[in-house]
Amino acid sequence: MDSWRKNPLVFWVLNLSPSVWLVAFFIVPLALVWVLSFGEKRGLLDVAITGTLDNYARALQPLYLEIFWKSIWMAAAATMVCLIVGYPVAFAIAFAPSRWKPYLLLALMVPFWINILIRTYALIAVFRTRGYVNFTLEWFWDQANSLLGAIGLGGYGLMGARFEPLELLYNNFAVSLGIVYAFFPFMVLPLYANIEKLDRSYLEASLDLGAGHWRTFFSVVFPLTWHGALSGVIIVFIPALGAFFIPDLLGGTDSQLIGNVIERQFKSANDWPFGAALSFLLMYATFGALALRALVVGRKQGLEV
Amino acid sequence: MSESPVTVSIQSVSKRFGTVTAVDRVSLDIRQNEFFALLGPSGCGKTTLLRMLAGFETPDRGSILIDGQDMAEVPPNRRPVNMVFQSYAVFPHMSVFDNVAYGLRVAGTPSGEIGQRVRDALEMVRLSEQAERRPDQLSGGQRQRVALARALVKRPKVLLLDEPLSALDAKLREAMQLELVRLQHAVGITFVIVTHDQHEALSMANRIAVMEAGQVRQVDGPAQLYEFPNSRFVAGFIGKMNLFRARVIARHGTELKLDVEGLGRLTLPGQEPHSADSPGAAGPGAGPDPWDIDIAVRPEKIRIHRDEAPGGRISHHGRVSEVAYFGDTSHVYLRLDSGQSISANIRNVARTSRPSFRIGEALWCSWDAGDTLVLDR
Questions:
Q1: What is the largest CA-CA distance in chain B?
Q2: Considering the domain boundaries, does residue A160 fall inside one?
Q3: Are B194 and B133 in a shared domain?
Q4: The model scores a pTM over 0.90
């Protein structure tokens, strides 16, 4: 792989355009936002970069810390759900007959071909008061009610006077569900990759030595695939932490996450320096988590070598 | 040995994978304390049979009894057997000690007892010094001994070994063969080993079942199997064999008069019947005349001379077509005057008087009529 030393021109041509892209559309804008976070709003459009830390101080007020905390909590809960549901799904795909695997993976990936906004609106159609979940529940209610009527208990109103649809939307539950739905494949894919690589004879050896399936999972499977789980947790948790349109569309008045607050600063509130400071606080937290992961993985590998 | 009680009883077991019949109506009895080998070419169903004993595959038909108990409803983790996997499957995230202790911890053994039993098991496989090592700090042979200790520490009724030596280099393999036999004597547990290596099976096992295409072709002790194979397949699979197509043209008592392809007319004395637990026990060559059979001679039973052999031996004239030198032996390939090829193994007993044969040299080969095997086709 050191052929680039012999053909430096090819190397530069091939690498220049992605580098330019990265610098122009990622590094520079990010730097601008970072600089903005030390600015002060002057009038409607002007921002003066004064080096002030007021934005950060404001972002660390209890009001915003509470939202930060809530965002972290919701993202963590959604990530845990993804992890707990993702393991069996990844297992099922990894252990499926090999001719089924491409189709199962495809089924997992197909939603990605549809815009996330449209998918989120689709969730509304499913969960709203007059949505498919409630229709289904109502059908069961009707069946149960007529069954009660048939056996002569219809007059007592055991099932209530009429079907009360469940309020499934516009609350924290709906937001968590939306986040799980949106990011679930990101959890399954790294898990699948790790489980697929796992030598089946480890599982058989564990069973052979007398362990049940749960014991085998916690003593053998998880310790040997936790790298995949950690990757999945990180690539689900980070975007979940910054989610803003899912709480916008599915959440209620108390479902504001930090993503919504940031979005509002850049749009309706028109306070870019404060939005920038909030964004970077989120980013520092993310970097911290990644650094921690690198540390944990590095230490683990250092032990194993 | 034949008086020991039966530990594993395999009764008319069949297993199909899709359209392939991996195991086809196999019945075997494996006795207590036996070192039993399942031998056959790859794809003969031997590994599937072993995995059915462990519980990783379920027989489509037939039943498996271990210590008299039907295993049909018993999952792998509740069977009184333990397995040494071909890949060893030593858990990479646990130390050697923890690997060996795993099965005992799962069973809820008191921790004091665990420590003692694990130390004993590690001592038995000579790994006491490596107890705190991680598997990736061990050599292949050491990893395999961890796998052995991990299985034996559970004190199973039967130890299953799936091609345990195939990943080791030749020298280590030979040492481990002796080690396994020593271990089996020491622990007194029934060993069932799967192998495709005839030398491994012959040198280690008390009894060997030769499998082909999902079926057991012959079950016998190593010497019986080698000297009295019951079929062309077993004769050709175990060791080297000169095989000739032949036809019975007359018989006088047990004596057979044969017309042999490439060897002409031969008279053979009566054949010993095969051992009782093998198919075809009626004795070979027993069909109506004329009856197509095969006859076979081991290369090491053939002698090579410069002059015609004395009477009483089957003797043929030919020319050397190839000589392969193996150190302890040389394989001499002769083309007989009839065009038939035959190979003979010559032991190189002395350093200097080693017979040297030139290619094209005219020679005689001969063997005792009693060393000729008659095989039904």
A1: 76
A2: no
A3: yes
A4: no
